[in-house]
Amino acid sequence: MPEWLSTSIHAGAARIRYTRSLTRIPVRTSSRSYEVVVERGLLRSASALLQGLVPSHAKTFLVSSEPILKLWGIPLTESFSAGGRHVALLEMPDGETSKKLRTVERLAEKMVKLGADRRSVVVALGGGVVGDVAGFLASSFMRGIPVVQIPTTLVAQVDSAIGGKTGVNLVSGKNLMGAFHQPLAVLADPDVLSTLPDREFRSGLFESMKYGVIRNRQIFDLLETHRDALLRRDPELLAQLIVECVKVKADVVSADERENGERKILNFGHTVGHALESATNYKHFLHGEAVGWGMIAAAVIGESIGVTESDTAQRIIAIVLAYGSLPTVDVGTRRILKLLQSDKKTMGGVPHFVLATGIGKVEVVNTVPESAVVKSVDEIKRLSKAR
Ligand SMILES: NC(=O)c1ccc[n+]([C@@H]2O[C@H](COP(=O)([O-])OP(=O)(O)OC[C@H]3O[C@@H](n4cnc5c(N)ncnc54)[C@H](O)[C@@H]3O)[C@@H](O)[C@H]2O)c1
Ligand SMILES: [Zn+2]
After folding, report:
1. Sign (positive/negative) of CA torsion 191, 324, 277, 373?
2. Are 78 and 48 in contact (CB under 8 A)?
3. Closest CA to 5 of 53, 59, 49, 46
4. Going along 19-164, which residue ranges are E strands?
5. How far is CA 104 from CA 2, 129, 146, 166, in A?
6. DSSP class of residue 158?
7. Buried-most residue among 33, 82, 130, 181 (CB within 10 A)?
8. Statement: residue 15 has pLDDT above 80
9. For the CA of 174, the nearest atom of ligand 1
10. 16 pLDDT exceeds 70?
11. pLDDT tens readout for residues 306-325
12. Relative to the CA of 130, which ligand 1 atom is closest?
């Protein structure tokens, strides 16, 4: 792989189709205001979209991993070279295990060797792993240079690329080192999702459901009504879903950049979800799958303490199961309780639960009795074995 790229990467790039319907969704935070641009086929016009944001003479460092570059590297680098931009490739290994400080250090050393300076720009092409690593690299390289996020998984397009959370894992735990570093722009091309493995795609659909429950019942209705078409990745519906989810994330982050208040609602399904991931050493569930079970657990908890009406709880449970197949839940209930108490988002040993008060409305509750949590974990175990 050549280090300085202007025209070519690997053979075998995926084909992009065109339609012109570009949506720009603003994110306004105190540290930066920027746009999330959603458009089918935008990978090919990425360079033009950055006009005015990134000077064409700025050294641009493209961070990505081999499988993503093989599929989508060519259209992006062609767009950069057509726009007269010189792009240096920073390849990192694929997968969660590469989300660590050592990777950031290696990429930074390489940037220095390639002549990076304070006016350089990082472009992240990939899923949440690449986005989190590249974002953290940019947040700390020479005390901070800009990053453009080009998310290529559904999780990244609706969630991780937006909002400025960046970071890496420590051996002691996930996402324990990091920084808030808002991107210059987020460019989301729904067509790149055509090559995502099925499990990864569904994982993103569970995160999308979350937005329906917390803020926007139209998202929930869309998922209920168009299950088959969405699972087939109908391009127009998918683009619509992404736009609606991004709007929710952008709104919530704009209201609360640092998760002091409202941003907590984004953790719907994540309290039990994180505990499931941690109990299985992040090997058994994809993040969205754990969130799927976590949303069911939140529905059961909400119903059992009288916050969530039965109809609402049943709709949440039904939609998660309709988009399964979810991996079996085979974890000790005690272990989950313990993990909930040590979660980094827990305050003083009291887990906070985001619970639905309707479809599109949630509240944060920190008085959930242990018995309700036990019931919910038993229920997800039962459901997972009944399938
Ligand atoms: N920063 C945040 O706010 C935030 C929010 C949610 C999740 N995250 C983080 O995101 C990470 C998970 O991200 P993810 O779910 O995107 O996983 P990922 O980045 O590991 O990507 C999953 C797999 O899909 C492949 N892939 C990516 N795009 C593809 C494409 N278009 N076609 C085919 N294959 C493709 C990747 O190579 C990888 O093997 C976790 O580390 C999580 O902590 C961060
Ligand atoms: Zn999540």
Report:
1. positive
2. no
3. 59
4. 23-28, 33-38, 60-64, 87-91, 121-126, 147-151
5. 20, 12, 15, 12
6. I
7. 130
8. no
9. 43
10. no
11. 999 999 999 999 999 999 88
12. 19
Residue with tokens 């690329």: 161
Closest by alpha carbon to 360, among 200, 201, 251, 239? 251
Task: Tally Cβ neighbours within 10 Å of residue 290.
Answer: 28
Locus of tokens 């690449």: 130
Helix (H, G, I), strand (E, B) or coil at 186: strand
Q: How far apart are CA 350 and CA 84, in angstroms?
A: 54
DSSP-assigned letter for residue 307: S
Return the bridge partners of 322, or none: none
Q: What is the mean pLDDT of residues 151-174?
A: 96
- With tokens 């969205």, the residue in question is 288
Portion of the chain with pLDDT greater than 90, in percent? 86
The arithmetic mean of pLDDT across residues 12-29, rounded, is 68
- How far, in whole angstroms, is CA 113 from its chain's centroid? 31
Q: What's the mean per-residue pLDDT of the chain?
A: 92
From ligand 1's centre to the CA of 155, what distance in Å? 6
Strands 165-170 vs 173-180: parallel, antiparallel or unpaired: antiparallel
Out of 59, 99, 165, 352, pick the active-site residue.
165
Distance separating alpha carbons of residues 33 and 241, to the nearest angstrom: 23
| Enclosing H/E stretch for 49 | helix 46-49
Residue 134 in contact with ligand 1 by CB distance below 6 A: no
| Span of 54-58, 142-146, 190-194, 316-320 with lowest mean pLDDT | 54-58
Residue to probe by mutation, ligand 1, list 63, 149, 153, 246, most atoms within 8 Å of CB: 153
Quote the ligand 2 centre to 79 CA distance (angstroms): 31
